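Researcher: Good morning. I'm working through a list of sequences from a screen, and I'd like to move beyond sequence-only analysis. For each chain I'm collecting a predicted structure so we can compare shapes side by side. This is the next one on the list. No need for commentary yet; just the structure.
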Amino acid sequence: MREITSAAELRELLGEPSRRDATKERPGLHEHDRAWLAASPFCLVATSDADGNCDVSPKGDPAGFTLVLDDTTIALPERSGNRRADGFHNILANPHVGLIYLIPGRGDTLRINGRARLVRDAAFFDDMIVKGHRPQFALVVDIEEVFYHCSKALLRSALWKHEAWNPDAAPSRARIAKSLERKDEELADLEVYYGPRYADNIYN
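Model: Good morning. Structure tokens for this chain:
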């Protein structure tokens, strides 16, 4: 393997970005960003700890789950999960976060970078109730950069093309759990647990 070991070598390979691309980030939300957040049901949250160890966590809820508190502040609700809290531990050590928001069917994405805080209660939590579930806490992000990313990656991956989908190409979630995480449990029981009824308990 021939590694790239310097910024100069990287730039030699890539060339220079256009002035438009190099300066497209903004320090706060535009009305288009607000509309995007209102339509997005899913985002990825990237964090790292004080030593640079990284984590990326998916966050999803009904469209508009991210609340816009003002032009430079957003809040994401935290629902019940596996309690590992890898990203949240990272944030306590290093507040820098990067978020990518998707809208199903769209190739472009909205990117937000900033500093995050964990808030255990606030008046706006009442606006985050879904199916009677009030957030355990919220991730509040003070925005430093906002910009849109082009659709090339999603076009190359054919992510939204149903004809390209092949969900059975990898083992089922139940089989993965049986092999790696829950070896003492019966596969039949895991198939029931991860089956259609799994969705009934996501807000419990």
